[in-house]
Every structure is written in structure tokens, then in C-alpha cells.
Design brief:
One of its GO terms (molecular function) is FAD binding. Keywords: ATP-binding, FAD, Fatty acid metabolism, Flavoprotein, Lipid metabolism, Nucleotide-binding, Oxidoreductase, Peroxisome. Belongs to the acyl-CoA oxidase family. InterPro entries: ACOX_C_alpha1 (IPR055060), Acyl-CoA_ox_N (IPR029320), Acyl-CoA_Oxase/DH_mid-dom (IPR006091), Acyl-CoA_Oxase/DH_mid-dom_sf (IPR046373), Acyl-CoA_oxidase (IPR012258), Acyl-CoA_oxidase_C (IPR002655), AcylCo_DH-like_C (IPR036250), AcylCoA_DH/ox_N_sf (IPR037069). Among the domains are: about 155-290, Butyryl-CoA Dehydrogenase, subunit A, domain 2 (Beta Barrel), CATH 2.40.110.10; about 300-470 and about 500-625, Butyryl-CoA Dehydrogenase, subunit A, domain 3. Strands 1, 2, 3, 5, 6 and 9 form a six-stranded mixed beta sheet that branches. It is α+β, with helices and mostly antiparallel strands and about 675 residues long. The protein is about 50% helix and about 10% strand. The structure holds stearoyl-coenzyme A and flavin-adenine dinucleotide. Flavin-adenine dinucleotide binds near residues 443 and 456. Stearoyl-coenzyme A binds near residues 169, 201 and 307.
């Protein structure tokens, strides 16, 4: 169809009307901050070295043309998305010298975000689970070969555990690995349709190897799920005889990843392909059990820890976008004026808007920071296990990683949705980045352990502690010491300005303790008339509530403790208010638990509510600077709404220009 002027011409006419330079509102916000941004950023990232590394990695990526996107990824179809991600992955791993590849918590995820964006891709499982599985589960004397092959990409692997019929319940996986002592091989087989592997990332097209979880049978006996290194494709990348493999189709998000299915037909692998660091099958078929039954699940524990940090950063990025946008957006209708006649206001000035934004911003800080010390805990535990077969800390680490994974992924997904809503219509556009962020984050509620299933693992740990405390002989892990403290009758919380950190912690601990023991009592009462598993099922909603509260208490305590380490007084003051807002918001949301039995009085509850309103007002002038303290570049953010310069409207027009529908 002929037109007088193309959409592109019209666009350029608009664009010329728009002035260069940062949006004046956002500049004003920055100038009004009560703290020094650099000091705050150093606190957020622990030290200036980490901050400097962020900048160096950004500059490296920006200066390499192979990381450019000729077409904006939002406008690609699935094949093109996979091609793009694969091209980027190759460029990424060809330049690994740019980062410390062992830094899985900071440098590696940042590098990946800058090069590819928020996507699980064809190498996510290779780096995220296959390499860690080799590291954690291969005997020291044998590790070099497979590790070097995997590290150099001579082999590309995935982690194939979930099946069509079973994902959470690992004990019921159906794929079998039957040892044949005559040929010294394992026979890997898919005995039923529901035993087909389903979901592994990178399996559909990319991987040629997999760490496969299968039920081990040796000398005619079942020994439970074990891991095996299995080659799937030949040198020409065709599936090997006995292997059927393919892509499972499009999903809610992460569509650049070729999640796949896998069926084995009596497929043989050498005996040494069993990962034998902890459990073994000797040549004659003798089985040697591991020092701890659950060591085989170690790679999952590590990835849960990685996810906690990764997901929290998504919430941080979402808060940055929504806060910056709220600073440059004015409400367009007359009713929007707070004081009639004084003109339009920034939407950031609405108290309801602050209530949508600032608790999410607060939520994004504690878990990201704690993960730095969790990283050292996990290293410590791994060392203990490797050196002394000391398993004492394993249950604590399992409970903690499962609980944090469940609570944080849920809060991140909910938070991103709340922040999307706070941006009105533009939040619904993919240009905002919210849809991709949400699709990425919500996947984390399911993979690496479905959240309810994970909470129930925490509850197992808590019920065991409660039983020990009641028996008067507790051996308490550090994270559970508070469970043995004496009962508290009344809450200590008061006005946000006067109540101390100790008061807040006292109340959180007391409420969580009550919840744990109330659940424990209900469970033990039910167990008198029901089978144990039936009683557990009947109690499971309360068990999840107690587990959630335990994790939230942990997060509140750690946020407050971390704020105390901030050396810059101005930054500490703002962060302290943010930490209190975080705690008060949790109390307000969980009011039922706090007010039960009159623990928190109505007067105190009102003070909590009022405190929230006052803290929102107190943080408001610093909100853009607090968003900036995440030190996220535009390349990392990938959001038109969250641009650092605040020039949202021309950027939206420019982004829309790339729609293929505007090309003819
Ligand atoms: C440049 C490079 C760039 C690199 C960037 C890097 C960034 C990476 C980012 C990450 C990307 C990765 C993406 C990942 C994608 C998803 C992958 C998957 O989903 S994969 C698939 C993920 N799939 C899943 O996650 C499946 C989830 N399901 C499970 O994990 C298990 O079935 C279960 C835990 C639920 C039950 O276990 P089960 O044994 O069946 O049953 P019981 O309940 O009877 O428990 C008995 C006892 O065992 C105990 N215990 C249990 N586990 C552990 C442990 N780990 N430890 C210690 N203890 C443990 C438990 O406490 C209990 O103790 P007690 O009370 O008796 O004392
Ligand atoms: C994006 C994505 C990527 C993935 N990547 C991989 C991968 O690379 N490799 C891999 O092996 N897997 C992968 N998975 C699979 C993932 O690990 C599983 O989906 C997950 O572990 C949940 O298992 P399920 O799907 O069987 O859910 P189910 O266990 O069937 O859960 C369904 C419902 O049942 C409930 N439920 C289940 N068990 C219990 C219980 N004991 N008590 C109470 N409620 C229960 C759950 O809470 C949930 O509400 C991926 C999944 C996704 C979404």
C-alpha cells in the first residue's frame, strides 16, 4: 500500500523534536540524594574492587562487536532466538579470559547478562549443572579428563533428571541403569512412556552428553537414583543408536533454550561412566554406598544457592526500572494533581506508588547480600565433605538453600509483577523488560525443586529441631538456635524510629517459634491417630507457613546485621530505614501470625502500619539514588523504561520502529 509518509518518516519527525540530555526530573532526583552514590555502591557490592570489575566487564562487552545485536531480540522468532543465543554463547565462551570463571555468584552471571540477556540458553545447563556435576561427583583421579573436555567444550552437556511422570519425587524416577558384570557395562533404559526424560535444558538440539539420573540395579538389587555420564550424539551430532532425543516446544519463557526429551532403548555405557566419587559399583557388581545417602543430590544444592542470588538481582533490576520510570512519568489527568492547580505530579509522589515500589526495592537487597556469605558456606561445606567426609553441616545447608530458594523465587516473581503493574500500560510492553523478567523468574519457582516441595523439606528440618528441643537435648544448627529460646509473651515492636533491631528480631523469632511449635504439636497429635505420612499431609499447609516464616526471620536478621557493617554513616542511615521497612512490611503482610494470642497488640499493629507510611515518605527522596546503587548499566537492564537517562518516550518510539510490521 502506498503512503504519503512511512512510519519511519513520521518517527524521525517526532524524534527531532526531542531534546538530548538526561531527563531533568531524574537529574533532580539524583541531585537530592542524602548519601554518596559511590559509597553506597561499594557497600552494596561489598568493596570497590567488585564495583570496578563490573565496569571492566561492561567495557569489555561493549567494545566487542560480536556481542552486538543487529536486530533487537524481541522481534525474533524462536529459531532466530536460538540462533542468536547460540552465536552469543560461542562469543561469550571464546572470551572467557575477560572474567573470573570460578566466580559463579558475581562475574559469570554478570558477563552472561551483558552478552546474552535474561535467558536460559543452550549452554546454561552445561555451565550451570553439567560442569558442577563433574566437579562434585567425579573421583579426584579421574576428574581431569571429563572436566577438561567439558570446560573446553569438546563435549557439551546437560543435566537429565526430570521425567514425564516424575520430577519432584526423585525416588520414583523410572529410568534404569542395570549393571551387566559380564560386559562391565550399564544398560540405560526407558521402560515406560512416563520414564522418558523431559525438560533438560540444551538437550533438544545442543548437548552431546548428559549427566543422567537413573535407578541403579546391580546384582539384582535396586540401589536408588544415581548419576551417569552418557554420550547422546556422535561426532556428526546425530543421536547414537538406542537414543531418541528432541525439543519439547515453546514454553512460557526461556525460549532460546532447547529444553528436550530423551528416550533410551537398552543403551550401553562403560562401568566407569557412573559418577563414583561417593557411591561405587565394583567390576564384579558389588555396591559401595556413599557416606551420606543424599550426596548424590549435591549439584542441586549448589544450583539452588546460585539461583537465589541470580533471582534477587532480577528483582533489583525490576525495581530500578519501575523507580526510574516513576520519576519521569507524570500523571496525565487533572485528577492526578495532588494540590489542585499546581500541575501534574511525578507518579513517584503518590503514596500508593511508593507502597508498590519501595518494599520491593527493600526486598531486593537482603537476599543478594546474604548470598555472598552463603557462597563461602557452600565452599566450606564442600571442603568438609571432600576432606573429612564430614556431613554434619549438610542438613543445615540443604534446609537453608531449599528455604531461601522457595521464598525468594516466589517473592521475586510476585515483586516483578507488582512493579510491572506500577508502570501502567508501558509495563505490559516487552520494551519494559518486565514480561521477560517475569517469565524468567517464575520458572525459578518450579525448576531446581518445586517451591512447595522445597518448603516441606525445610519443615522436616524444623520439626526435627522442635522434637529435639522438646526432648530437652537439642543439637542445634546455627540457623535454628532461636527455636530453643524461652517463649515470649508480648511483642516489643514500637514506632519505627525508636524500636531497636533487637526488638524486631525478638518479635520475628518469637512468632516463628510459636508457629513451629504449634505445628509440631498438631502434627504429633495427629500422629496418634493417623499414619505418619497422613498426618504430615494433613498438616502440610501449616508446615509450609512455619517454613516460610523461618526463612523470613533469617532474612530480616541478616539484613539488619549486614546494615550494621556499613561504614559510611549516610548510607547506613538510609539502608537501615530500608531494612526496617522490609521488616515492617513483612509484619504487616503476616499480621495474623503476629496478632495471634494477642502477641502484637492492635496499638502496635497500627504503629507498624503508620511506620510503613512514614518510612515510605522518608525514603522517597532517595529512591532514584537507591535504584542507582545497584550500579546496573543500560546494557544489563535491557529496558526502555528503566534507561539511566530517563528519556523513555523517544526510546519507546525507536524500539517500536524495529517491529517487522513497520517494515512494509
Ligand atoms: C560464562 C558462564 C556463565 C555461567 C553462569 C552461571 C549461572 C548459573 C545459573 C543457574 C542456571 C541453572 C538453571 C537450572 C535449570 C533447572 C535444572 C533443573 O531443574 S534439574 C532438576 C531439579 N530437580 C529437583 O530439584 C528435584 C527436587 N526433588 C528433590 O530434590 C528430592 O526429591 C527431595 C529433596 C524433594 C526429596 O528427597 P528424597 O530423598 O526423595 O525424600 P525425603 O523427603 O524422604 O528426604 C530424605 C532425607 O534426605 C534429606 N535430603 C534430601 N535432599 C537432600 C540434599 N540435597 N542434601 C542433604 N539432605 C537431603 C532430607 O532432608 C531428609 O532428611 P531427614 O529429614 O530424613 O533427616
Ligand atoms: C524452565 C524449566 C527448566 C527446567 N530444566 C530442567 C533441567 O535442565 N533438567 C531437569 O532434569 N529438569 C528440568 N526442569 C524440570 C524441573 O526440575 C521440574 O519441573 C521440577 O523439579 C518440578 O517437578 P514436576 O514438574 O514433576 O512437578 P510436580 O512434582 O509434578 O509438581 C506438581 C504439583 O504437585 C505438588 N507436589 C509434588 N510433590 C509434592 C509433595 N511431596 N507434597 C506436596 N505437594 C507436592 C507441587 O507442589 C506442585 O504443586 C525444568 C523445568 C522448567 C520449568
Amino acid at each position: 500500500m502506498e503512503r504519503d509518509s512511512s512510519p519511519s518518516d513520521q518517527f524521525h519527525r517526532y524524534k527531532n523534536l526531542i531534546q538530548n540530555g538526561d531527563n531533568p526530573d531524574i537529574t533532580k532526583e539524583r541531585q537530592g540524594a542524602s548519601f554518596n552514590l559511590y559509597n553506597m555502591q561499594c557497600f552494596v557490592y561489598e568493596n570497590d574492587h567488585k564495583l570496578q570489575r563490573r565496569q571492566e566487564i561492561l567495557e569489555f562487552v561493549e567494545s566487542h562487536r560480536e556481542f552486538d545485536d543487529p536486530v533487537h531480540p524481541h522481534f525474533l522468532n524462536r529459531d532466530e532466538q536460538i540462533d542468536r543465543a547460540t552465536r552469543k554463547c560461542l562469543a561469550m565462551v571464546d572470551n572467557l579470559d575477560a572474567i573470573d570463571v570460578t566466580d559463579y555468584f558475581d562475574e559469570a552471571p554478570l558477563y552472561q547478562l551483558l552478552t546474552i540477556g535474561r535467558e536460559l540458553h543452550c549452554l546454561s545447563l552445561h555451565y550451570g549443572m553439567f560442569l558442577p556435576t563433574i566437579q562434585v561427583h567425579t573421583e579426584k583421579s579421574l576428574i581431569l579428563g571429563p572436566f577438561q573436555m567439558a570446560a573446553s567444550k569438546a563435549i557439551l552437556g546437560t543435566f537429565a533428571q526430570t521425567e514425564l511422570g516424575h520430577g519432584s519425587n526423585l525416588s520414583k524416577l523410572e529410568t534404569t541403569a542395570t549393571y551387566d558384570a559380564t560386559t562391565k557395562e550399564f544398560v540405560i533404559h526407558t521402560p515406560t512412556m512416563s520414564a522418558g526424560k523431559w525438560w533438560p535444558g540444551g538437550l533438544g538440539k545442543s548437548a552431546n552428553y548428559a549427566a543422567v539420573m537413573a535407578q541403579l540395579y546391580t546384582s539384582g538389587e535396586s540401589k536408588g537414583p544415581h548419576l551417569f555420564m552418557v554420550q547422546l550424539r556422535d561426532n556428526a551430532h546425530a543421536p547414537l543408536p538406542g537414543v531418541t532425543v528432541g525439543d519439547i516446544g515453546p514454553k512460557l519463557g526461556n525460549n532460546a533454550n532447547d529444553n528436550g526429551f530423551l528416550i533410551f532403548d537398552h543403551y550401553r555405557i562403560p562401568r566407569r561412566n557412573m559418577f563414583m566419587k561417593y557411591s561405587k559399583v565394583e567390576a564384579d557388581g558389588t555396591y559401595i554406598p556413599p557416606p551420606h545417602a543424599k550426596l548424590g543430590f549435591g549439584a542441586m544444592v549448589l544450583v539452588r544457592l546460585l539461583m537465589i542470588r541470580d533471582q534477587t538481582c532480577q528483582l533489583g533490576a525490576a525495581a530500578v526500572i519501575a523507580i526510574r520510570y516513576s520519576a519521569v512519568r507524570h500523571s496525565a489527568v487533572r485528577q492526578g494533581e495532588i494540590n489542585e492547580g499546581e500541575g501534574e505530579v511525578q507518579i513517584l509522589d503518590y503514596r500508593t506508588q511508593q507502597y508498590r515500589l519501595l518494599p520491593q526495592l527493600a526486598r531486593s537487597f537482603p537476599s543478594s547480600q546474604r548470598m555472598r556469605s552463603r557462597n563461602s558456606t557452600s565452599k566450606y561445606v564442600t571442603k568438609q565433605i571432600n576432606n573429612n567426609a564430614n556431613m554434619e553441616l549438610l542438613p543445615e545447608l540443604h534446609a537453608l538453600s531449599s528455604g531461601l530458594k522457595a521464598v525468594i523465587t516466589w517473592e521475586v516473581a510476585q515483586g516483578i509483577e507488582q512493579l510491572r503493574l506500577s508502570c501502567g500500560g508501558h509495563g505490559y510492553s516487552r520494551a519494559s523488560a518486565f514480561p521477560d523478567m517475569y517469565a524468567y523468574a517464575v520458572g525459578g519457582c518450579t525448576y531446581e525443586g518445586e517451591n512447595i516441595v522445597m518448603l516441606l523439606q525445610v519443615a522436616r528440618f524444623l520439626m526435627m529441631i522442635a522434637k529435639e528441643v522438646r526432648s530437652g537435648n537439642p543439637k542445634l544448627a546455627e540457623i535454628a538456635e532461636y527455636i530453643a529460646k524461652p517463649d515470649a509473651v508480648t511483642a516489643r515492636i514500637s514506632s519505627w524510629k525508636t524500636c531497636s533491631d533487637e526488638d524486631i528480631i525478638h518479635d520475628f523469632e518469637a512468632v516463628t517459634r510459636k508457629l513451629i511449635f504449634a505445628t509440631f504439636d498438631r502434627l504429633t497429635t495427629l500422629e496418634r491417630t493417623m499414619k505418619k505420612k497422613e498426618a504430615w499431609n494433613a498438616c502440610s499447609i501449616d508446615l509450609c507457613k512455619a517454613a516460610r516464616m523461618h526463612v523470613k526471620t533469617y532474612l530480616v536478621k541478616n539484613f539488619l546485621a549486614r546494615v550494621r557493617t556499613c561504614e559510611d554513616p549516610a548510607s547506613r542511615t538510609v539502608m537501615h530505614t530500608l531494612a526496617k521497612l522490609y521488616a515492617f512490611d513483612l509484619i504487616s503482610g503476616g499480621g495474623g501470625h503476629f496478632m495471634k494470642g494477642g502477641f502484637l497488640s492492635e496499638k502496635q499493629f497500627n504503629e507498624v502500619q503508620l511506620g510503613i507510611y512514614e518510612m515510605l515518605a522518608a525514603i522517597r527522596p532517595d529512591s532514584v539514588a537507591l535504584a542507582d546503587s545497584w550500579a546496573i548499566s543500560d546494557l544489563e537492564l535491557r529496558s526502555v523504561l528503566g534507561r539511566r537517562d530517563g528519556n523513555v518516550y523517544p526510546a519507546l518510539l525507536e524500539w517500536a520502529q524495529q517491529s517487522p510490521l513497520n517494515q512494509n
